[in-house]
Specification:
Layout lengths: L3 E3 L4 H8 L14 H7 L1 E9 L8 H18 L3 E3 L11 E8 L8 H9 L2 E5 L22 H13 L2 E3 L5 H10 L5 E2 L16 H9 L3 E4 L14 H15 L4 E3 L19 H10 L4 H16 L4
Parallel strand pairs: 1-2, 2-4, 3-4, 4-5, 5-6, 7-8, 8-9
Length: 307
C-alpha cells in the first residue's frame, strides 16, 4: 500500500458547523480516522473553508476552524503536525493547516502574518466568487489580482506561506506565476483538456506550474471529472494521466476535496479507497516509483519547503 498525501479536504468546516469528529463520524462525513488509516494516508491537508454565505465574519470562521484543528490534534495522538523530519513509515498521520478563501485575512497583511504564526502554511486567494484579492475561476470576467492581492502574494512569498492557485481565474494564475518568487501549487484542480470546466487548468498553466516546480492535486468532484452524472476511478485516472503527460511525473498529486462535495465517485467514496485508485494507475502502465510520486512524494517534496 502506498502512503498518500492528500492536498485538500473540508473536514474542519464540518467540525465547526456539524460536529464532525474523526473517531465518531457523522453519517455524511467522509474524512474519518478509520478511513485515513486503512487508505494509507500519511499527510492530510486540512483547509479552513470560508463560507461567504454565512453571516459570521470570515476571520471569525477561520479562527473557529483553526481552534477545531488544534483540538483535533489534541484529541487524536495518531496525528502530528507535518515537519521536515516526518516519515510515513513512523505510523502517524501528518497534518497541515491551510485556508481556502482569502476573505479570511480581511485585507490585512498583519492578519496574514498572525495566521501564519498560528500554523497556516498555504492559502487560496478565492473560493468561487471574485473578492477583494483576486478574480475567481467561477467568477465573472476572468479578473486578475487586485492591488491588495498583489501585496498578499508578495507577503506570502516573504513569510513562506504556499500560494494555492486552485479556484483562481486563468488571468489571476498567470499573474501569480509572473509575480511569485516561490513555486505555487493547485491543491485540488483538474485538467481542462480532459473535461472543459472553468475550475480546471488549461495545458499552458499545467505546463507553467510544473516548470516552476509546483504541483497539481487532482480532485474527485464529479462535475470536474466527467460529463456523466456519476464519476468513477477511471475518470480520476484520466486527469492524472493528462497532467503527467503535460507537466511531467513530478508535478501530479492528489487533492481529494473530501467533505467538500455531496456526491463522490462510485468506487472512491472515502480515503480507504485510495488503493483502488493506485491499482488503476498500475493498469495504465505507471511504475511503482511513479505511483509513489503521485500518491505521496510530489506533494511532500513541494510543501516541505514551507514548514
Amino acid at each position: 500500500m502506498f502512503p498518500v498525501a492528500d492536498g485538500h479536504c473540508d473536514f474542519l468546516y464540518g467540525a465547526v458547523q456539524s460536529g464532525y469528529e474523526l473517531k465518531q463520524p457523522k453519517r455524511e462525513q467522509t474524512i474519518q480516522m478509520d478511513g485515513l488509516l486503512r487508505g494509507g494516508v500519511a499527510l492530510q491537508f486540512f483547509a479552513c473553508w470560508i463560507d461567504t454565505a454565512l453571516r459570521i465574519p470570515p476571520l471569525h470562521q477561520c479562527v473557529a476552524m483553526i481552534d477545531a484543528y488544534q483540538r483535533m490534534l489534541d484529541q487524536n495522538p495518531e496525528l502530528v503536525p507535518f515537519s521536515k523530519s516526518f516519515s510515513p513509515e513512523n505510523g502517524n498521520i501528518a497534518t497541515l493547516l491551510t485556508i481556502e478563501g482569502g476573505e479570511a485575512i480581511d485585507g490585512s497583511l498583519a492578519v496574514l502574518r498572525v495566521l501564519y504564526r498560528l500554523g497556516v502554511r498555504a492559502m487560496t486567494l478565492t473560493w468561487n466568487e471574485n473578492n477583494e484579492l483576486s478574480g475567481a475561476a467561477m467568477g465573472r470576467g476572468n479578473k486578475g489580482l487586485t492591488a491588495i492581492g498583489r501585496d498578499v502574494i508578495d507577503e506570502m512569498c516573504s513569510i513562506g506561506m504556499a500560494i494555492d492557485v486552485s479556484h483562481l481565474s486563468d488571468h489571476a494564475i498567470e499573474q501569480v506565476l509572473a509575480r511569485t518568487t516561490r513555486p505555487v501549487f493547485a491543491s485540488h484542480s483538474n485538467a481542462r483538456s480532459v473535461l472543459d470546466h472553468p475550475r480546471s487548468l488549461p495545458d499552458d498553466l499545467i505546463r507553467e506550474i510544473a516548470a516552476q516546480d509546483g504541483t497539481i492535486g487532482v480532485n474527485f468532484y464529479y462535475q470536474q471529472l466527467t460529463k456523466s452524472a456519476e464519476a468513477c476511478i477511471e475518470d480520476i485516472a484520466n486527469h492524472i494521466c493528462h497532467i503527467v503527460h503535460i507537466g511531467g511525473i513530478d508535478c501530479c498529486a492528489i487533492g481529494s476535496d473530501f467533505d467538500g462535495m455531496q456526491q463522490y465517485p462510485r468506487d472512491l467514496r472515502t480515503s480507504r479507497d485510495f488503493p483502488a485508485l493506485f491499482s488503476a494507475l498500475a493498469r495504465r502502465g505507471f511504475t511503482q516509483d511513479e505511483i509513489y510520486r503521485i500518491a505521496y512524494q510530489n506533494l511532500r517534496d513541494y510543501i516541505v519547503h514551507f514548514v
